[in-house]
Amino acid sequence: MDILLDTHVFLWMITLDDRIPDSFVEVIRDPENSVFLSTASLWEIIIKYRLGRLPLPESPATYVPRQRQLHRRVFRSTRWGCGLWNHFRCCTEIHLIGY
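The structure assignment produced for this chain is given below.
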């Protein structure tokens, strides 16, 4: 089964947050399933971090790829690369000009 994670489910999964239901964890960890994270989720993470609404231990450009690597068996199918971060950094700066 192909699974597209919502942003908050991805964040709960990598932080082992108690709010994620056990049934979600089972489905996400099932090796028969392919787990995807939308590029829109990456954009959302960057924007919320820059607005101070998403505390992370380091910048999203470092934290999210590191978490993806640490959880590579789970997120083996997420398809986005390092070049994507440069694109979103630029878009995020433009988007936040009015704030």
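Interim note for the steering committee: The radius of gyration is 14 Å. Residues 92-99 have pLDDT under 50 and may be disordered.
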